[in-house]
Amino acid sequence: xxxxxxxxxxxxxxxxxxxxxxxxxxxxxxxxxxxxxxxxxxxxxxxxxxxxxxxxxxxxxxxxxxxxxxxxxxxxxxxxxxxxxxxxxxxxxxxxxxxxxxxxxxxxxxxxxxxxxxxxxxxxxxxxxxxxxxxxxxxxxxxxxxxxxxxxxxxxxxxxxxxxxxxxxxxxxxxxxxxxxxxxxxxxxxxxxxxxxxxxxxxxxxxxxxxxxxxxxxxxxxxxxxxxxxxxxxxxxxxxxxxxxxxxxxxxxxxxxxxxxxxxxxxxxxxxxxxxxxxxxxxxxxxxxxxxxxxxxx
Length: 298
Prior knowledge:
Blueprint: E1 7-10, H1 16-27, E2 31-36, H2 44-57, E3 61-65, H3 71-84, E4 90-93, H4 108-136, E5 139-143, H5 156-176, E6 182-188, H6 205-209, H7 217-230, H8 239-249, E7 259-262, H9 268-293
Helix pairs in contact: 1-8, 3-4, 4-5
């Protein structure tokens, strides 16, 4: 059964899914470590807002400085959290950015930056907290995207980072299952957060010129999403994603699905359903092979 009171870490807690997940989990009675960059700078107002809500509602929220791209920052935050909690039950890898533009025009450095947040960031966090998660059984939930399963034009760099993250954590999940740690992936469609505008402009203006009028398409695409978000309605409410994460946390250990799609799916549910039996057969074959070879976790 899921534990009544859990210690939860959420990355990227200053806005969007992360911010809402912090509040949702804290309102369920859990202790939540809301991690974010620049808690004494650009995110100071968000820090104060979370702490004010926590005080008014008697919630157990602790804001911690943490940059998922900086190993030293993670090490300091890990030490701070370990002083506050003798165990960790849940890690929510939410921090992310989205690069939208002409894929060819992004520099190698920009692509590395995207991967550092969306791919290496969750891995750094998992490596930091798995020693604690493995002690009593825990959960790693990764916020991906439908773009982590489908390829969209002008989202190539972002898709690559999410595809890589999903592959790593699905594989890791199979390896951790015998040790009582669940790994899940949440795949939101488009929601009304600021993620779409979180990435930089393409660095190579000369490449952009070679695309002519097509160079305007990424901007037009973003404008279309903005119009949809401004219309409001439940379909674009990011609280849905926080609720799904909460449901996964409160699902019985070993019974959580690998992937959960939220919102407009663009066919991702159909894709996941089609791939799942193939993946299950593969894992069954691997387990059988290991059994024949006498391989076990002991």
